[in-house]
Design goal:
Layout: H1 2-18, H2 25-43, H3 48-71, E1 73-77, E2 83-87
Antiparallel strand pairs: 1-2
Helix pairs in contact: 1-2, 2-3
């Protein structure tokens, strides 16, 4: 099972690198982040729940990183639950 997950994530990482255009940067970031989360879960032999959670967290982080590099804007916490957006 773990071997199949690793092979599937490597295949998705390879394909994600092929579609990196300006319009697809966030999709590529999500795919790369999800692959990294999946590989991390497989490396730590996580159960199914943690594997799903780490894959989704990786996808979210990859999307935000791609969006921030595209717009050169980063969100910073104000400490009260709100955020401000300023150039990175």
């Amino acid at each position: 099972m773990t071997r199949n997950l690793i092979l599937a994530s490597l295949a998705s990482l390879t394909l994600a690198g092929c579609i990196d255009t300006t319009d697809n940067r966030e999709l590529t970031g999500a795919a790369l982040g999800a692959g990294a989360g999946l590989l991390g879960a497989a490396a730590f032999d996580a159960n199914a729940g943690w594997t799903v959670l780490s894959t989704l967290a990786g996808a979210a982080a990859g999307t935000l990183i791609a969006r921030n590099t595209r717009t050169d804007q980063c969100a910073y916490s104000n400490g009260d639950g709100t955020y401000r957006t300023v150039p990175c």
